Amino acid sequence: MSDEFKTAHLESDSRFSYTITETGENGVLIRFKGVLDNHTAGDLLDSISSEISGRSPRTAAVDLSEVTYMDDYGAAAVHHIKRITGTVGDTFQIREPYPENGRELLDDPVFDGKQPELLEKKRRLGPLITRLGETTIEETKHLGFLLVFIGSVVMAFVKIGANPKKLRIGDTIDHMEKTGVAALPIIALISFLLGSIMAFMAAIQFRQFGAGLYVASLVGFAMVSELGPIMTAIVVSGRSGSAYAAEIGTMKIYEEIDALTTMGFDPTLFLAAPRLIAAFIVVPILTLFSNLFAIFGGLMVGVLMLDLSAVTYIRETVEVLSLKEMAWGTGKSAVFAVLIALIGCLQGFRASGGAAAVGNAATSAVVRSIFFIILFDSLFAVIRSL
Amino acid sequence: MELLTAIEVKNLSAGYGDSMILENVGFYVKPHEIFIILGGSGCGKSTLLRHMIGLEKPISGSILVDGTDIITCADMDFCSVRRKIGVLFQSGALMGSMTVGENVALPITEYSGLPAEAVKDIVKIKLKTVGLGDYEDHFPSEISGGMKKRAGLARAMALNPKFLFLDEPSAGLDPITSAEIDDLIISINETAGATVVIVTHELASIFRLAHRVIMLDKEAKGVIAEGRPQKLMNESDNPKVKRFFNPNPEKANKSNGV
Question: Between β-strands B212-217 and B222-227, what pairing exists: parallel, antiparallel or unpaired?
Answer without folding.
Answer: antiparallel
